[in-house]
Specification:
Length: 333
């Protein structure tokens, strides 16, 4: 049996029970990134639970017939890919064996037999990025209960590593981009805003993907220095960035542990990385001012402004936070 399909143990009652529990989390992702067709959704659900490739495809025929009739389908792995509608993102998401070895097997196997591999991998990256954004960004309603649901069904780390990349050089979209400098410029201009959103978000998830972003941004700034890329110089934004970061590190009991962990990583990065000259200058000036009463007052104003925006969200119970958005029960106990 194919190594990928061997991961299914649907004859094991305990395994199947856990798999059904996993589906409750995975289906949230599937519903957002598959055709809005109930029949197709049900075939994907069946494939997730059983690993059975018979009729779990767009044309609803047996795997044996597919191998005989379709020149592009030659073995069990091809049947699995056909069952998943050719989506590499879902193939990785659905794998019962969530290991680096399995991801590498899936990706290398597809690469060896699909002439459109690069395009499909970029499509998979975009699917991952879109899904991660829905789970980790401002557009996703997240009350305290929702925050406990594993985003991307707890598969964030591996999906990030293989579909996003932990450096610019590993970024599939960067590799394919005709204007690589323009792509790096765009990523760096997103950096400050994304970090501030994470810092002010009322209910982050322990698996929020920002915890893996430090190395990616280090590589972006390194690329910018090598190619003399100039990004928007915004002293106010850079000051807000370092103030929020330092405030979290200095006041860990005011924030969820995930924010403290991420802020500590970014503090080291922002203080020690060369960045680029204009941003390095802005960050250094903000750090020098941090101990002053003026800086503390500005940080309090910033936090209040962020909270005023967040607390208007209809899904948020504002009574669970203080006047600047501090969760009332965020201590580490």
């Amino acid at each position: 049996m194919d190594k990928y399909l061997a991961g299914w143990q649907s004859d094991d009652k305990e395994w199947l029970k856990q798999r059904k529990a996993d589906w409750k989390e995975v289906q949230v992702v599937v519903k957002k990134f598959t055709p809005r067709d109930k029949a197709q959704f049900n075939t994907l659900k069946d494939f997730f639970l059983t690993g059975n490739t018979d009729r779990a495809n767009l044309v609803g025929v047996s795997a044996e017939y597919l191998v005989e009739d379709n020149a592009d389908v030659n073995d069990e792995f091809d049947c699995a890919l056909y069952a998943i509608h050719g989506r590499i993102f879902l193939l990785l998401l659905f794998s019962p064996i969530q290991t680096a070895e399995m991801y590498e097997y899936v990706i290398s196997t597809i690469q060896s037999r699909d002439e459109f591999f690069e395009k499909k991998m970029i499509s998979a990256r975009k699917s991952y990025a879109g899904c991660a954004k829905r789970h980790h960004h401002t557009g996703e309603a997240r009350n305290k209960k929702d925050a406990q649901i594993p985003a991307l069904a707890g598969r964030d780390a591996l999906l990030y590593q293989y579909l996003h990349g932990q450096s610019l050089a590993e970024d599939l979209e960067f590799q394919a981009a005709k204007d690589k400098e323009g792509y790096a410029y765009h990523q760096l201009n997103l950096f400050g805003g994304m970090f501030l959103i994470f810092c002010s978000m009322p209910n982050p998830n322990e698996l929020d993907f920002y915890q893996w972003n430090v190395s990616y941004y280090q590589s972006c700034f390194s690329y910018a220095r090598e190619h003399n890329i100039t990004i928007q110089d915004n002293l106010l934004a850079d000051t807000a960035l370092i103030y929020y970061c330092l405030f979290i590190v200095d006041n860990p009991d005011n924030f969820w542990p995930i924010k403290v962990n991420v802020a500590q990583q970014f503090k080291t990065f922002l203080l020690e990385d060369p960045l680029i000259p204009s941003k390095r200058k802005n960050i250094d000036e903000a750090v020098e001012l941090w101990g002053t009463a003026e800086a503390q007052s500005q940080c309090h104003t910033l936090r209040s402004m962020c909270w005023e925006s967040w607390k208007k969200s209809p899904w948020l119970d504002a009574s669970q936070f203080d006047e600047v958005g501090k969760p009332l029960d965020c201590d580490k106990s």
